[in-house]
Design a protein that fits this description.
- This protein is α+β, with helices and mostly antiparallel strands.
- About 35% of the residues lie in helices and about 25% in strands.
- It is globular.
């Protein structure tokens, strides 16, 4: 009798496959309140790695971490009309607390432009206080009707950066710097996902923004996932919250602000961007466990060798996990680590040790090779680098094979059923964008032919990248 597959095959039911991976790789569970999630230790370990890598890049860009309240007075949101209109259906509002009705309802933050704007106005007095570059790691609540773990939940984790600048040009340059030097660099170099960067159309902009920049990645089923956004807010929030400063001439000026963020949605991108029918595949630079060393049998020499191998790799800076749970079958343990996507497995058994060797298994290709014990401290770090490069190359090849240049709206709609389509924005326009939306196809971003971000929507040669999306 054939053994039932551990996961639903991607080709049979991609959404079901995704849910299987989330559950069986022990990444997360549904929370007790609809739309919430419980992130399990292995999943949270991956999020911590994302957090650390993004946080380092944010600090290199000059921003400092702070923390702002979870509760925001409802009146704050109403001070920026477009912003509150954009979020109104998603707001969670507290009307009672401490057994009493509140004098003013408070909103559980959907994002923090308004409350941070209030304090920017307090902290900024002079041009010498600018730029003010802030970031916070927090949870936010958006009362989503249709939820899926990591991709769209009522509560999720993220970072949100908020900055104030003396000039429009400085704010625009910083928003672009975050897009490239923080988000794109992390997604390409660590997540091994070759994101496209560009501008959002007017229809797709963040509520209250004058310009939204985005990173868009192709998932395994050809759909797009917005992985991160960076917004120029112009002076909209600065006027609403009176964020002003005295310039060098002593004249009162209004500041220019930005906001930008990535979230636990990146976990969904990791799963769908690299996963296969055997489970998750984690790029080595991201992996909280880069190598798992498995003892095949409960044998003193094997257990001693497993410990020595782990120590030798830790000394080389490798993140290692020892699996000596020999009371559980070797096959079951191998399958579990495969599901979790650990980049390299080192399998140690008595016969291998007699020859001074071990078996090394690559998760990305499932390739198995023998390696000498004495060579492991050199071989393994090199193999991890190779896997990282290979995963980026594979994801890039898949994206490029499914990225089609088209000339008409009908061709764009058809191409978007299996991947991305690029069409001149001058050909598509807002009317074509609306026509595609009727078929659940959206403009993911606008970019120039060389893949760079156009200065405006109307710049010559602007292309629209369109796709179905999560």
């Amino acid at each position: 009798m054939a053994k039932a597959p551990v996961l639903t095959p991607q080709a049979d039911d991609f959404p079901r496959w995704y849910q299987d991976v989330v559950a069986k790789a022990e990444l997360a569970d549904n929370g007790p309140v609809r739309g919430t999630m419980v992130i399990r230790p292995y999943g949270y370990g991956l999020w911590e790695r994302m957090q650390a890598e993004v946080d380092r890049r944010i600090k290199e860009a000059g921003a400092e971490n702070a923390y702002f309240p979870l509760f925001i007075p409802q009146s704050y949101l109403t001070r920026e009309a477009e912003h509150v209109e954009g979020f109104s259906p998603e707001l969670a509002v507290v009307t009672h607390a401490g057994g009493k009705e509140l004098d003013e309802p408070v909103v559980v933050r959907p994002t923090s432009e308004t409350v941070i704007g209030e304090f920017m106005a307090k902290w900024i007095q002079s041009h010498r206080d600018l730029p003010l570059l802030l970031n916070q790691w927090a949870n936010v609540v958006r009362w989503e009707l249709r939820t899926r773990i990591f991709l769209r939940t009522s509560e999720f984790l993220w970072q949100e950066g908020h900055t104030a600048h003396a000039t429009e040009a400085d704010a625009a340059a910083y928003a672009l710097r975050i897009l490239h030097d923080v988000y794109r660099d992390f997604m390409v170099e660590v997540l091994a996902l070759p994101v496209l960067v560009g501008r959002k159309t007017r229809q797709e902009r963040f509520a209250g923004a004058t310009n939204t920049l985005a990173c868009e990645a192709m998932m395994g089923d050809g759909k797009a996932l917005q992985m991160g956004t960076s917004h120029e807010l112009g002076q909209n929030f600065a006027r609403a919250f009176d964020i002003t400063y005295q310039d060098t001439e002593g004249v009162q000026q209004t500041a220019w602000t930005t906001s930008w963020g990535v979230s636990t949605r990146m976990m969904g991108g990791l799963i769908m961007g690299h996963g296969d029918d055997a489970g998750l595949r984690v790029p080595p630079r991201l992996a909280s466990i880069q190598v798992v060393v498995l003892a095949i049998r409960d044998d003193p020499s094997v257990l001693a060798a497993v410990s020595r191998i782990a120590e030798s790799l830790v000394d080389r800076g490798v993140r290692v996990k020892v699996d000596d749970r020999t009371e559980t079958s070797f096959g079951r343990r191998s399958t579990d680590w495969e599901l979790k996507g650990v980049p390299v497995r080192i399998e140690v058994g008595p016969r291998d040790l007699e020859n001074g060797e071990v078996t090394i298994v690559r998760r990305d290709t499932t390739e198995k090779n023998q390696a000498r014990l004495v060579d492991l401290p050199v071989v393994v770090p090199g193999l991890l680098d190779l896997i990282q490069q290979s995963m980026l190359h594979e994801a890039t090849r898949r994206r490029d094979e499914r990225l089609v240049d088209v000339a008409t709206v009908d061709e764009a709609r058809e191409a978007a059923q299996t991947g991305f389509a690029r069409i001149p924005w001058a050909t598509l326009g807002e009317d074509g964008e609306a026509a595609l939306a009727e078929h659940a196809v959206t403009v993911r971003c606008l970019q120039l032919p060389d893949g760079s971000v156009p200065p405006t929507e109307d710049a010559p040669g602007v292309l629209a990248v369109v796709a179905r999306a999560y």
